Amino acid sequence: MPDIAIVGMGCRFPGARGVRAFWHLLEHNTDAVTPVPEDRFDVRRYHSARPGEPGTTVSRHGGFIDDLYGFDAAFFGIAPREALAMDPQQRVLLQVVWEALEDAHILPSSLAGSRTGVFVGQATAEYGDLAESDGHQDVHGMAGGRLRTMTAGRLSFALDLRGPSLMVDTACSSSLVAVHLARQSLLTGESDLAVAAGVNAVLSPSDAITYSQGGMLAPDGRCKFADASGDGFVRSEGVGAVLLKRLPDALRDGDEVLAVLRGSAVTNDGQGSGTLLQPAVSGQTEMIRSACRSAGITPDQLDYVEAHGTGTPVGDDVELRALAEVMGGEGRPRTRPLPIGSVKTNIGHAEAAAGIAGLIKTALIARHRTIPASLHLRTPHPALAGETATLACVTRNTPLVPGGRAALMGVSSFGLSGTNAHVIVGEYVPEPHTGQLSQGTSDAPEEPRLLLLSARTPAALSRLAARYADFLDGGEGRAFTLRDICHTAATRRDAHPHRLWAVGRTHDELAAALRALAEGEETPDGGTADAGFTGDRRTAFVFPGQGSQWLGMGRRLLASEAVFRRTLTECDAAVREELGWSVIGLLTGDGDDSPPRELPDDVAVVQPLLWAMQVSLAALLRAKGVEPDLCVGHSMGEVAAAQVCGALSPKDAASVICRRSSLMQSQAGRGAMLAVELDAQDAADAAAPHGDAVCVAAENAPGSTVLAGDARALRLIAERLQAEGVSCRYVKVNVASHSPYMAELRDDLAGALAHLTPLPARTAMLSTTRCEPVDGPELDAAYWVDNLRERVRFVEAVRTAGKEETVFLEVSPHPLLVQSVTAVLDEQGAAPAAVATLKRHQDDGENLTRALGQLFSHGARIDWNRYFQGTAPRVPLPTYAWDQEQFRKAGPRSGARRAGRARTGARTARVGPGRPGAERPHPGRRGGRTAGALRRGRPAGGGRHRAAR
């Protein structure tokens, strides 16, 4: 049987909000037990220093997770009323599993419809009991708060998972039994990915009173595992989750393997102890041996065991004697006693989540090769004393010393009803050339890097940007190259509606841009935008007419980008064949070391030059993952649009642009062009008194039109309009395009292009000559005659395209139409989504990188794997920054207020019984496939098992 890989982990434990914080707590030997917080219950009402006093508990302490009632309901598409009814164990689990998926670099959206199983250990539902006692009973409260069965179903629904989904209640061994069942589901092929989790929340004093009456709670609130003076445990909370895959599948998918599950076993004590509630040595020894057999090892090969380790006199004695018996029976050398420990000495007894806490700790031990100290051991239990002892409790941080090639460790968990679980955890040591990635990819310092972030709300996005800035500033982020960080962020995180991009060449530059954006400041190195509800807008490539050329354009791309250089070389050959001169030579200096001092003004030179730039930029954009869904051209830009959409071959496109511009040059000096700040109709009215001498040449934007024709007539129009306060300016061209002068070229151009054989377009093209979609074959000689003579109906084309959610990318050396597109979209009430590719006299590479960032932020589809070209180490990035709102129903025992209150995040929500707005749907979006509102399933009853082992 294959090993099972742990590929991701997430947690909330006392003193630790996340896996990294959990390891920090363990490594620094932190005791996270505290007095019971007031928002759980008023422990003063129930505490008594006299053991056994009816209705009281001797313990005033516990382990409590931070912000138990905080939840980002809108992120999961859950309305406030439903969130209020949900058990906080369900709420926290949703967020923890999302973080585990991010830790595993698995896109949650990719799991929709998959055979992903969910196995959750949970033993209590005290929140539902409180809500019931509060007098608020409805179907939401029953399903969300009192039925433990809904915890797994809630997660499966939120992520649209189709594998098995079940709850496990074996008291304190629940979550480790869930791990065993998840492993079995993977081995049988029932699941391809499994979530194994455990949850526990301490909301009521009732269980503590019961345990205290039974003498199970430590008066000082500490679990003193393996200490002869151990006098009980302390209750604690916890939520933990691991993501499991078959090891071959994990390696195939390029996942980082944190540790492997070599084997597992679940057994019951039966009548081994003679008492139902007392553990049995025989049951535990058989459990360990059975787990080792399933792993194909013997117990003496274990290098560490994470014990159940509650610190109770009976429980510790049985567990230590069982371990000693197994180790002694296997002949473990006395010189190498088995290291043991218990996470309960740090965080308390998390009951149903105790096993998952031990498993996550053990996986971290394998990862860091360090065994953290177990705390509070003063007088070792007799099983640890003497020279013949085969066990040694780790009391200071100790290196993990494997007995073989890879370390082997066990994790134990025992339930009150006698159900025991043990999992064999192996350190993962990759075989040579298994595909596991390592750090240290080269990162050229001069290369600008693009970081992409997203969130469901602007406030969450700002906090996420600040987290990433801290990550880049700190030592953790500096251990990775910027390329690897940016690659992981782009390809291993789901994209949400509110988006941010930032560019930098160093960690410090990128962090500075992020901090500015997080604080709402403008920076040229980054920006934010709303990508819309779907975050999946189509992309329109817009190719402008003449005027974007500048000296030096394209030189850096020609030197650094192979796709741009190859396409430009193809264009160069086509222009040489048509006109006898070199595009590349003109840009760089005809092959010598002295580039030109200025570009010619001749339309017969400028237009072929710009066409070559446009189609080469389009090819480069495609190579970087940006595919157009629509092509739109303005005047001569339609030639590039026709080629890029596939309707014209490169050879035919070169014929059109070269022969068109050469014929236009024959009209040089005749006529002029005047840009006026008028709508097309008003501009036409201004030209009407001059008859056929002047016409509307181009409709560029609302309030921006170009007139063309007789120079004298245009001068008279300009004088009159300026006197009326209308701004006018002459266009710097020597040819009056789209004017009556061009009609004289009709026959010559038709003859010159008679050979064209247009093809069916592969990408949609919207004609600005006819203002309708074109399929390709109609782009014959007659079309290009009209293209030269008829007005450019750009405004109407953008209006048509803008009826669908579209991001417009101007593909040119300098933006001419971005403002025009923005004006049209503003007129329609659409979000401005127009982006420039390059800008005059600025670094081409930086501008192209910024353009891609802006495209992402506006919601354009981009294949980031193509952009980053190749694999890279998957960097452990910061997790999502939740918009935490407080959702809490309080029973009469706590004395707390009845309503939920927001404490963290950007929003404040008042929800609760009797408050206005409790019935209103949440203002947040139902975000794609992560909407998790409970809408189905008939509730089913279930008993409670109190965990006390």
From TrEMBL:
<dbReference type="InterPro" id="IPR050091">
    <property type="entry name" value="PKS_NRPS_Biosynth_Enz"/>
</dbReference>
<dbReference type="Pfam" id="PF02801">
    <property type="entry name" value="Ketoacyl-synt_C"/>
</dbReference>
<dbReference type="InterPro" id="IPR014043">
    <property type="entry name" value="Acyl_transferase_dom"/>
</dbReference>
<dbReference type="InterPro" id="IPR016035">
    <property type="entry name" value="Acyl_Trfase/lysoPLipase"/>
</dbReference>
<feature type="compositionally biased region" description="Basic residues">
    <location>
        <begin position="935"/>
        <end position="949"/>
    </location>
</feature>
<keyword id="KW-0808">Transferase</keyword>
<protein>
    <submittedName>
        <fullName>Type I polyketide synthase</fullName>
    </submittedName>
</protein>
<keyword id="KW-0012">Acyltransferase</keyword>
<keyword id="KW-0596">Phosphopantetheine</keyword>
<feature type="region of interest" description="Disordered">
    <location>
        <begin position="886"/>
        <end position="949"/>
    </location>
</feature>
<dbReference type="Pfam" id="PF00109">
    <property type="entry name" value="ketoacyl-synt"/>
</dbReference>
<dbReference type="InterPro" id="IPR001227">
    <property type="entry name" value="Ac_transferase_dom_sf"/>
</dbReference>
<keyword id="KW-0597">Phosphoprotein</keyword>
<feature type="compositionally biased region" description="Low complexity">
    <location>
        <begin position="902"/>
        <end position="913"/>
    </location>
</feature>
<dbReference type="InterPro" id="IPR014031">
    <property type="entry name" value="Ketoacyl_synth_C"/>
</dbReference>
<dbReference type="InterPro" id="IPR016036">
    <property type="entry name" value="Malonyl_transacylase_ACP-bd"/>
</dbReference>
<dbReference type="Pfam" id="PF00698">
    <property type="entry name" value="Acyl_transf_1"/>
</dbReference>
<dbReference type="Pfam" id="PF22621">
    <property type="entry name" value="CurL-like_PKS_C"/>
</dbReference>
<feature type="domain" description="Ketosynthase family 3 (KS3)">
    <location>
        <begin position="1"/>
        <end position="427"/>
    </location>
</feature>
<dbReference type="InterPro" id="IPR020841">
    <property type="entry name" value="PKS_Beta-ketoAc_synthase_dom"/>
</dbReference>
<dbReference type="InterPro" id="IPR014030">
    <property type="entry name" value="Ketoacyl_synth_N"/>
</dbReference>
<dbReference type="InterPro" id="IPR018201">
    <property type="entry name" value="Ketoacyl_synth_AS"/>
</dbReference>
<dbReference type="InterPro" id="IPR016039">
    <property type="entry name" value="Thiolase-like"/>
</dbReference>
